[in-house]
Amino acid sequence: MASSVYKLIADDLRQRIANGQLAPGDDVPTEGELAARWSTSRGPIRNALAELRNEGLIETTRGRPARVVERKAHQAVDVSIPFTKWARDLGANPGALTQELSLRRAGDEHAALLGIAPGDLVVHVLRLRLLDSRPTMLERLTFTEDVGRTLFEHDLDAVSITDVLAERGFGYADVDHEVDAVAADEVDASLLEVDPGSPILRLRRITRDADGRVFEASDDRYRSDLVRFTVAASGRAVAGGHFIRPIGG
Predict the structure, then answer these.
(1) How many angstroms separate the CA atoms of 130 and 83, rounded?
(2) Tell me: the pLDDT tens digits for 160-176?
(3) pLDDT tens digits, 105-123
(4) Cβ neighbours of residue 241 under 8 Å, at least 6 residues apart?
(5) How distant, in Å, are the alpha carbons of 23, 41, 54, 62, 229 from that of 47?
(6) Residues with Cβ < 8 Å from 80, sequence gap 6 or more?
(7) Contact criterion met (CB below 8 Å) for 225 and 137
(8) From CA 123, how far away is CA 150, in angstroms rounded?
(9) Which pLDDT belongs to residue 104?
(10) CA nearest to 136, candidates 69, 196, 188
């Protein structure tokens, strides 16, 4: 009976959060108030609150009522999902504001990542991505010249780059991801609307075509107050090696 009661309480609070009756920043009714409303002890109440906390819907602090938090969008990092599709799967409206599309010479770092010579031409994209018109992610994309030149034919505010390249035969056959946290630089801070030095999540990506050739190196930076990364993989690659690698000293 106690088990079913706590689920009913959790479902009720979850629904009130979903329909806006309890908005981000609002206090959740106290344990005493919920116990009186549901004619139950505080045990089921605490179990219900713990479930909502584990789901990222509320936060609890000793000495004060639980509070509704703004739910973060989940971004899986063990698979490659284009931002546009990810946003629509969330039920959000994706947007893009292209800041730069340029042809430039590769520096040492991008040359090494792309397997080309320093000084070879590459195409660089700096694009702000939006969820429901809210700045969410800033992507820095660098492509080998033959692949990236395709992008000059398109309005990058209106298309999925992944889809555009796939239509031209540059499919994303194999992708390596690396995740860390960095301090927002001046460009990040200005476009993502955060304070300089604020912690943001960085997802770096190396993309290969069906022949194993690297054609893209990206650096995507997400607002950590809006997005959190999740991993659903087993932690071991098919060949037996670990997905999680130690950082070399």
Answers:
(1) 9
(2) 999 999 999 898 888 88
(3) 999 999 999 999 999 999 9
(4) none
(5) 21, 11, 11, 16, 26
(6) 172, 175, 177, 205, 207
(7) no
(8) 10
(9) 97
(10) 188
